[in-house]
Amino acid sequence: MWRSYELLAHLAEKGLINLEEELPRYERLDTDSLERDVRAREADWEEIEKLPPKLKAAVKLYIETGDIRLAQKLSGLPLEDFVQLLRRVKVPPFVTVIE
C-alpha cells in the first residue's frame, strides 16, 4: 500500500491533482491513521485491483486520505455513485472514531 504522500505525489505526476493546492489539506494525515487503518483493513483489495485505473486511484486516494470529495472528483463519478463503488469494494464510506 502506498503511503499518503507518495500517492498524492503520484497523482500529481499523472496530472490528476495539483499537489501545491492539495498538500496543505493533508498536513493532518498522521492524526487520521486510525480511520485510514479501518478503511484499509475492511477493503476488498482484490476487487479494488480489478477496477479501471482512474477508479482504482480514486478509491486508493480515499482509503489513504479520507477525502471523499477529492476522491469522488478524481473518479469522475457523481458522489452517490462513488459511495456505491466504495461499498461494492467494501471500503467504509464513513468512519467515525469516538475518543
UniProtKB/TrEMBL annotation:
Lineage, top-rank taxon, reads Archaea
What is the protein named? PaREP6
The organism is Pyrobaculum aerophilum (strain ATCC 51768 / DSM 7523 / JCM 9630 / CIP 104966 / NBRC 100827 / IM2)
